[in-house]
Amino acid sequence: AQSVTQPDIHITVSEGASLELRCNYSYGATPYLFWYVQSPGQGLQLLLKYFSGDTLVQGIKGFEAEFKRSQSSFNLRKPSVHWSDAAEYFCAVVSYSSASKIIFGSGTRLSIRP
Amino acid sequence: NAGVTQTPKFRVLKTGQSMTLLCAQDMNHEYMYWYRQDPGMGLRLIHYSVGEGTTAKGEVPDGYNVSRLKKQNFLLGLESAAPSQTSVYFCASKIRPGTDNTGELFFGEGSRLTVL
What we know:
The structure holds two protein chains of two kinds.
Chain A: E1 3-5, E2 10-14, E3 19-21, E4 24-26, E5 31-38, E6 44-50, E7 56-58, E8 64-68, E9 73-78, E10 87-95, E11 102-104, E12 108-113
Parallel strand pairs in A: 2-12
Antiparallel strand pairs in A: 1-4, 3-9, 5-6, 5-10, 7-8, 8-9, 10-11, 10-12
Chain B: E1 4-7, E2 10-13, E3 19-25, E4 31-38, E5 42-51, E6 54-57, E7 65-67, E8 73-78, E9 87-94, E10 106-107, E11 111-115
Parallel strand pairs in B: 2-11
Antiparallel strand pairs in B: 1-3, 3-8, 4-5, 4-9, 5-6, 7-8, 9-10, 9-11
């Protein structure tokens, strides 16, 4: 069965520091991969997505992610975080062959140290 | 443009009571989803629908029922609420997957349900 693993439950970084959030997926077919962000008390907002082509994808708010098939990973990065980036981040996978079902990871909560 | 709207936003129930959460979307999306969000467990798919009149089970369907009588609405019902169903519920929708769409989910703002 397909699954998504986000190994880091909570990460704290200093404002201005770089960030990398990890995501590993388990799926036999070509996946569609997403990163969503959730601010407190809000719904989820799409940051970026990967379907095919260039394995480094750019998203909103200065985020990027790199798809690495050999490692089954889709890690999210940002070169310099801002206090407003404090939120919960979710990785998600969609099956190419069954595009109706979308599975989310358990999330990583990001805190920013002033 | 309202997007995805969930009602109610907050509700407190006693064990054994029933209730229905309503999700309405105005984007003419074919696919609709109900997720629950619990601390440390992310979002888990309860039920989903790929079109009017069709529904399917997700990861955690037990204790819930759904209906999609109209394309724009997706109802989530709890027939006999249990404390284990205390959670935040999110509805989401997206267009039918194809070669020229992103498959992006659009989310409502959530409904917080407490079962005492």
